[in-house]
Amino acid sequence: MADLVQARGVVKSFTTGGVVTPVLRGTDLAVAEGELLMLVGPSGCGKTTLLSVIAGTLDLEGGEVTVLGTRLDTLAPAARTRFRCRNLGFVFQAFNLIPALTVVENIAIPALLNGLRPAEAQAKARVLAERVGLGHRSDHLPTQLSGGQQQRVAIARALVHDPALVVCDEPTSTLDHHTGDDIMALLREVAVRPGRALVVVTHDSRIFPYADRIARMDDGIITGVETPPRTP
Question: What's the whole-model pTM score?
């Protein structure tokens, strides 16, 4: 299958107090259509930075990033924002749900941003709430949900506008083993299919068997890529 993501020679550093810290040092990574790729490595090695560059939320200083055939590093900021809105779904470690909105209203946000009418967006959000096992909680607020339930809302929100690329930052780090398994099984079911791909940054070795490939990272570069034994 074709690569949906190609990062070549990516360079990125951060400057704090006049001190420049290199983070990505000519990093290469490819993610194939229909693939769940996990990005693993020690804290501070550049995993989340690489994920952010691939998602177009951080500028790079060298190299290039192509997502769905589009060179993100050549797009103006407004065009990159529109590209992300249409084509990417995000699952954050901290959930980032809006406290004043219900489950359905939170899920519907990306659909509204992509031009769906409110009634259509909420109807689609209710379908996804059912699919993630939260149909009975559709009109609850985030504070009325468990951590695992909030993560399911975040996943449904990431998928409501049918993005081609879903990126996840530590989606199971705050979850127990059983809930983490449920989350990863759900992600594989709904996000890994033809025309889509999923990239997961994680320290959680319990979920490695859900990956098609694992890219190991250290000191700002990919040091190796492996295929783990798959979960039955």
Answer: 0.90
